[in-house]
Amino acid sequence: WPEREEMGPMEGEQPMAKRARVEEEQDGAREDPYAVPAEEVMRITYVNDPSEVLALQASHDRWFRPAFTHQVFGQDEVVRGYESCLVSVYLHATTMHAFVSIETKGKQENADDIPRLLDENLGLQYTSDAKEFEERVRATEPKLREEVARAGGYEGGVVSYQPHREDCTALRELHDRLQFLPLLYVDGANYIDNTDPRWSVYLGVSSNGTICGFATVYTFYAYPARERLRLSQILVLPPHRGRGVASSLLRRAYDDAARRGAIDLTVEDPSEEFQALRERVDLRRVLGDAFFENFARDAVARHELQLRNGMRPDTLLMPTRDVYAQAEDRLKIHRAQLRKVWECVLLRELSRGKLADVARDLVAKVVEQRLSTRLSEQRLQRASSNKHVIDRSKDDFIMTRVFLGAGGKREMAEPTEEEARRIREEDEGRVDGRMAKVVALAGALEVVAS
User: Fold this and answer.
1) Between 306 and which of 45, 311, 404, 425 could a Cys-Cys bridge form, CB atoms 3.0 to 4.6 Å apart?
2) Crossing angle for the helix pair 335-352 and 290-302, nearest 10 degrees?
3) Is it the case that residue 174 has pLDDT exceeding 70?
4) Distance between CA atoms of residues 446 and 432, nearest Å
5) Considering Cα of 184, then 185, then 186, then 189, what sign does the dihedral take?
6) With the CA atoms of 284, 286, 291 and 295 taken in that order, what torsion angle do they form, in degrees rounded to the nearest 10?
7) What is the CA radius of gyration of the chain?
8) How many angstroms separate the Cα of 421 from the Cα of each of 1, 377, 394, 396, 416?
9) pTM value?
C-alpha cells in the first residue's frame, strides 16, 4: 500500500460513536452466573491454510474482538443460559469462508441458541466441520482468483466491480461472505443488495490474494443525465489497519467518479475516524492541484491589508462559485467537504506569509462561521415544544423558551443568562476542538510553514 495511515485527531462533527451500553443491564449480567457479556464471547481470526484450522484452535493467539455485538445478541449485548461460552470465527484470508468453533460450559435449558443467532441475525455463512471448511476453500479459490486477476488485482491494490454482473459471480459470492463484518464493526450497518446494478464494490487485495478491506458505493441519478456517487460502507479488516488500505479504497472511488463523469463523491454518515482520514486524502488532492493553491495564495495576498484591519476572513478568503465548481469537476469533492479542507489550505497559506502571526486566529473565524451556520440549522430542526431558535445574530444564537399562553398560543421569552452562557461555551468549545484538528492535520502533512 502506498502510505501508512496515521489515525490522528478525529473530526467530531458527524460522529458514528459506539452505541452506549446500558450499565444496569451489564451489571445485571455480571451478577447472573448464567449470563456472559457478548463482547467476551465472540472473537475472529484469519487463516491462510484451511487445512491448519484444527491445529490453530489449540495454539493460535492472534484474535480480534468485534466492536459491536448487539445486532447478534440483542440490545443488552448479553449471551444468556451459559456459565461460559466462546465463539471462535476463523476466516480464510483469501476466500473469506468461515469455520466456527462454539465452546460452552454449564448450558441451561432455555439458553440462547447461538448457531441460530449467528445464522438469522448475522447471516454468517459458516461450517463447524474442518473438512467441509477446507473443501469450500479449495472449490472457491481458483474461480475467485481468476475473477480478481481479470479485474486487475494481485498487483497489490484495489479491485472494483459491480456484483450484479454475470462475470463477477465469484466476487459477488465473496462480498456476500464479507457482509457480516460491517455489522460487527460499524454501528447501524446493514447488508446491501448485491443484485442491484447501482452498487459497486471496491476490494483491497494484497499481492498474495489476501483480502485487506472493502468499500461499497451507490450510484444516484442526477438530473438531467448525470450521476452522483455515495460511499456507503468502508471497512479495513483488523489485521491490515494502519497500512493505507482505506486511503487507497477512497482514492480509487474518486478515480472511478472522475472516469464515469459523476458530479461528485459523497460519504454516508462518516465516522469521526473516517472523516479525519477523508480530510487527509482530500487535502493532499487539493494541494496537488495548482489551481486551488494559486487561488488561496492570491486571495491571501490580495486581502492582506483588509485582514489586518479586522475584516472577516470568511468574506474574503472563501472559495468562489468557480472554485467549488472546479473542485467538483476536477476532484469530485462536494462543496461541504471542500469547506472543511479549505480551512487547512488557508492555514497553510496564511502561515507562510506576512499574516503568520494571526494565521490561527483568522482560520478560527472561518471555522466559527461554518460551524455557526451548521449549528443554527441543527438547532432549528431540533426545536422542541418548549424551546425555539427564532434568530441568529452576527456572533451568536438567540434561543427562546416557548410557553403556551391563553388559547394555546405560543409566547416567547428570551434565554436566561445561564442558557446564553452555556450556548456560548458550547460554540467556543466546538471551534476550539475543530481548530485543534485543523492544526494537527496541517502539521501531520507538513503544510504549516515552520
Assistant:
1) 311
2) 60
3) yes
4) 21
5) negative
6) -110
7) 26
8) 49, 20, 16, 11, 9
9) 0.85
